[in-house]
Amino acid sequence: MLGLSANLNYYLFNGNVDLRKGIFRLCESIREEMSLDPSDASNVYMFMSRNRKVVKILHYERGFPDFITFLKFSHEPAL
After folding, report:
1. CB 44 within 8 A of CB 58
2. pLDDT in tens, the chain (79 residues)
3. What's a Pfam family this protein contains (predicted)?
4. What is the DSSP letter of 8?
């Protein structure tokens, strides 16, 4: 279960990322492009789709990655 708190550091990945990538490919992007350690339990990494409708969050707890995908739907008026 993903537990988020104010004690964690939050990083929003700035750049184009293919959200079809799995955990290990996103960890590789964190290491290469952000020069950070994805297994640092004090860090939370967020990735957004190009159209900003999907957010993926990566956080390591107890040595295992928690990986959550959030879908954000557009706010269109109901007919």
Report:
1. yes
2. 566 788 999 999 887 788 888 888 888 889 998 999 988 888 999 888 887 777 888 888 776 666 665 555 445 555 5
3. TnpB_IS66
4. S
